Amino acid sequence: MFPLFRRALSRFSDGETEAQRGEVPKDLTQHNSQASASLPLTSRVRSFQQTVERQNHQDRLPNFHDKYGTPILLSGATFCLAIWAYAATQIGIEWNLSPVGRVVPKDWRSQ
């Protein structure tokens, strides 16, 4: 857990966790959101701390996105920029950015 995050959460707790005192955490026995909403703030913070610690200690194998996500993103962005650069400079598109001097008004028809 990040030091700043741990320090901020420790302000809400009394410094000693239920596990350190040898007690079963109260919030682990309650499963619905109404029961956890009625818990005091320190119990909810402890529950949050325990959840974060459980997630931090899980062994997680890298998946496809962890392995190849950044190179695929960078190669796609490079390809896109290269195609746009080629289209903007080499194809010969006449962009017509300003019609000033190119638009000639038609003569009125006489009746």
Automatic annotation (TrEMBL):
Signal peptide extent: none
Mitochondrion in keyword set: yes
Topology within the bilayer: Single-pass membrane protein
InterPro entries found in the cross-reference section: Cyt_c_oxidase_suVIIB, Cyt_c_oxidase_suVIIB_dom_sf
Pathway membership, UniProt: Energy metabolism; oxidative phosphorylation
Feature: compositional bias, Basic and acidic residues: 18-29
Subcellular location: Mitochondrion inner membrane
Stretches the record annotates as Disordered: 13-37
Main location: mitochondrion
Gene Ontology biological process terms from the UniProt entry: mitochondrial electron transport, cytochrome c to oxygen
Keyword list, A-Z: Membrane, Mitochondrion, Mitochondrion inner membrane, Transit peptide, Transmembrane, Transmembrane helix
Cited PANTHER family: CYTOCHROME C OXIDASE SUBUNIT 7B, MITOCHONDRIAL (PTHR16716)
Sequence similarity: Belongs to the cytochrome c oxidase VIIb family.
Protein name, as recorded: Cytochrome c oxidase subunit 7B, mitochondrial
UniProt source species: Phascolarctos cinereus (Koala)
